[in-house]
Amino acid sequence: MEIVAIDTPSLGDRSYLVHDGEVAFVVDPQRDIDRVLSLLEDRGVRLTHVFETHIHNDYVTGGLALARATGAAYHVNAADEVSFDRAPIEAGELVRVGQAMTVRAVATPGHTFTHLAYVLETPGEVPAVFTGGSLLFGSTGRPDLLGPAHTGELVHAQYASARRLAADLPDETKVFPTHGFGSFCSATQSEADSSTIGTEKCANPALTQSEQEYVDALLAGLDAYPAYYAQMGPANAAGPAAPDLSMPHPADKDELKRRIDAGEWVVDLRTRTAFASGHVAGTLNFGLDGNFATYLGWLIPWGTPVTLLGATSEDVAAAQRELVRIGIDRLEAAATGTPGDWTGTAPEVYPRASFADLALVRHHRPVVTLDVRRDGEWTDGHIDGAVHIPLHGLLDRLGEVPDGEVWVHCQSGYRASIAASLLAAARRDVVLIDDDFDLAGDVLAKVPVSAHGA
Description:
The chain is of the alpha/beta class. The protein has helices at 34-43, 63-70, 148-168, 197-203, 205-208, 211-221, 229-238, 253-261, 272-277, 292-299, 313-324, 339-342, 355-364, 375-380, 391-394, 414-425; strands at 2-8, 13-19, 23-27, 46-51, 73-77, 87-89, 94-97, 101-107, 116-121, 128-132, 135-136, 139-140, 174-177, 265-268, 284-285, 306-310, 333-336, 352-353, 368-371, 381-383, 387-388, 406-409, 430-433, 446-448. The chain has 16 helices and 24 strands. The N and C termini lie far apart (49 Å).
C-alpha cells in the first residue's frame, strides 16, 4: 500500500492518493484533477472511490469532476445539502476498496457541522486516519468559517472530535490532514511534515489542554481569513465541473489600456523587484513567487474581470491553475513579455528600500509609514507612528492613508508589494520597503506588545 500526498503549497493544503497496486482512492482532491490522473497513470492503478472530509471553505473541489472522469464513487456526507448525485456516506459506515483496504467514516464535527474523518485499515499495515480539517499537526481546523453564530458550538465540537480520534485509534496511527500547511483553515500553523496519534497526544493543544483552555486559546488566536472563502462552500455544494486550463486569448497594448481604463484588474505576475523597476500604469502586482491566489482572491471584488501579464506563457499557465483552484475560472485575456510589450508609454517605477532607509528618511522629512500586516501581527509589535491598515482592507480604506509619500511594509515584502501597486494605481507617491520586519527593531522604535496589549 502507498499513500501519496499531493501538495498544494500555495493554498496550504494536501490531497491524498492511496492505492494497493491495483485500485486506489483519493481524499479531498483539488480542482486541477490532471495531477491525480497523472499519478493514477504512473502507478498503473484504477480509481474506485473519492472521499470528501467536508464541504471545503478554502478551495473548489475536484472531487465530482474526478469521479465523473474515472467512474469512481463520490462519497460526500449524506447530511450535506448538495446539488449533484453522490454516494452518500454516514459516520460508522465501512467502504471496502479493493481486496484489503477498508475505509471507515468517523464523525468529527468542528471545522464544519458535518465533517468526517476516514480511518484506513489494511491487514499488516499501520492504521491511517485522513482528518481533513479536524485533527491537524499540532493544531485543529478553525471553527469560525461558518459565521460567528456557530463558532461557539463548533469550537467545543472540534475539541470533542479530536479527543474521540485520540481515544479510538492506536497511538501508532498515522495522521494525514488536509489543512495545516499554511492554509487559513488551520487555527495555527505547524512545521511538522508527518505525525501520529501518539505524537499528537503529546503536543496538540486539543489533546493536552483542558477544554476551556483549548477554547479560550484557539478563539483568542483567530485572525482574519480570505474573503473568497465565502464563495467556496456554495461552489462546492453546487458540484463544480473540471476547469478549463486552455490559454486565454492574447491582448495587445490597446486592449490592455482599455481594460485598465475600464477598472478591470490587469495583474502583473512578475516579482516585486521587477514590478518596482518598471510596470504598466494601473496594473497590480501579485507575484507568482508568493501566495498569489490567496491574496488576489482575498482582495478582488468578486466577479471583477481579470487579465494576466507574465514574463512567459508558463507563468500565465501557472497563475491560471492557481486561480481555478479558488473558483476564478474565466480570464479575459493574457499577455507575455515585458512592460515594453504591454504599453506604448514609458513604464512607471517606484523605489524599493530597507527599514534602515526608512529610519534615515524619518530624521530628515515627514513620510507616511503604512503597515499592511494583519491585526495579530500589529499587536505583537509595530513601528511607532505607523499607520495600520491590513492589506485585505486597503482597497476600501485607501482614503484613510494620509497625504504625502507613503513607505509601505509588511513582514517580508510580498504583501507590501501588493499594497504598493494598489497605491501606485491610485496615483499615490509610494516607496516599497522590501525588507524583513524582524530587522526593523535594529533601526526603528518598535512598540512592544506590552505597550498596548491585545
